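Protocol step 6 of 9: fold each sequence in the batch and record its structure tokens directly after the sequence line. For illustration, a two-sequence batch is reproduced in full.

Sequence one:
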Amino acid sequence: MKRALFPGSFDPLTLGHYDIIRRGVTLFD
């Protein structure tokens, strides 16, 4: 099982943050 931690300041969460998270989900469980 692969896990990832994506640290950062997400206040506010932007579409750029969402796009990076969405792409990363395919690489990890």
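Sequence two, same batch, same settings:
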Amino acid sequence: MNRIKQYRQKKKLSQYELSQRIGVARQTINLIENDKYNPSLALCLKLAYALETDLNTLFWEVDASSAESSQ
């Protein structure tokens, strides 16, 4: 599952609510969550801020379960 979606659901936000917080269309959130759109750095920063996390955690940090399954 996409990490942005995980954090959004953890915060109990709908795609619409998140989109309103960062100033984009709901469809943009959907495309990002489905890996069909690569957000700009500015948008990544807004996402991280709205989801109360940092860029590293949201986009690059490797999950322990993912690392184990790839070995």
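Proceed to step 7 once all outputs are recorded. Observation for sequence two: The chain is about 65% helix and 0% strand.
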